Amino acid sequence: MSVVPRSDWIKLLELQCDWGADEALLDAAQDRRGQSAPMARVAPVRATVAAGPTAVGGPAPSGAPIGGSIDLSGIDTLDALRAALAAFEGCALKRTATQLVFADGAAAAQLLLIGEAPGAEEDRIGRPFVGPAGQLLDRMLGSIGLDRGMVRIINTVPWRPPGNRTPSEAEINQCLPFLWRHIALVRPRAVLLLGAVAVRAVLGRPAPITKIRGQWQEIIVPDLNHALPMLPTYHPAYLLRKPEAKREAWADLLALRRRIER
Ligand code: URA
């Protein structure tokens, strides 16, 4: 991990104070909040990558995918995945969005972050997390010595839902094969799930973010023959609305850093 630039030190200290780290006794930040988060259950195995309603596990989504079953197993580069997604007609969000928002950051990153969906700024610029939530995300990453160039950032759905509404279950499922393939191609050591939509996508069912955050999930990703540790935490947009939740998000970031330093 590279060192945080000197010019950012004060900003990072302010962020940490903001988030409840009010004593600096050691070089490394410590989580003094007592028990560490428990390792959680193993999620259902998803052996196939297909867009059909029966292929992703769990109940059929409420809207049928337009694209039918798709096989992405021959896609073995991120450029090819981007091209396949750009050509995909199986999700109606594509028709109302300005452009595809594919990813940001390193192609082979130890840490992959999964958000919800592009917002207005992301839709305009074509990069994930460039609006106010993205600026907070940058500060969150900086607070644990990371920046965008060191991680991979993607969204559960790569097109902006109209009016920034939450993507529907059908839309999430339509885009899910691309999400799995993206994870398999990046092969990260850990995944940070930003908010309930990303959690719902990888678990295959909804889970209250306030309960599940901070609990590592071992998720079997199609095409990876091992479980991948995924940590749910609050979405930065939620933290902007509810600053008091930053203390818990800070604990999650420290847990994440411990994990990737292992
Ligand atoms: N929120 C997200 O979940 N993703 C983005 O890219 C921007 C805001």
Keywords:
262 residues; alpha/beta; Uracil-DNA Glycosylase, subunit E; seven-stranded mixed sheet; 10 helices; 7 strands; globular; binds uracil
Would you write up a description of this structure?
With 262 residues, this protein is α/β, with parallel strands linked by helices. It has a single domain (45-261), classed as Uracil-DNA Glycosylase, subunit E. Helix content is 36%, strand content 13%. It has 10 helices and 7 strands. It has helices at 9-18, 78-87, 93-96, 120-125, 132-143, 169-186, 196-203, 209-212, 236-241, 246-261, and strands at 39-42, 104-105, 111-115, 151-155, 190-194, 216-220, 227-233. It has a 7-stranded mixed beta sheet, with helices on both faces. A hairpin with a 6-residue loop joins strand 6 and strand 7. It is globular and about 50 Å long. The model is unreliable at 22-26 and 32-68 (pLDDT under 50). Residues 115-119, 122, 128-129, 131, 133-134, 155, 237 line the site of uracil (URA).
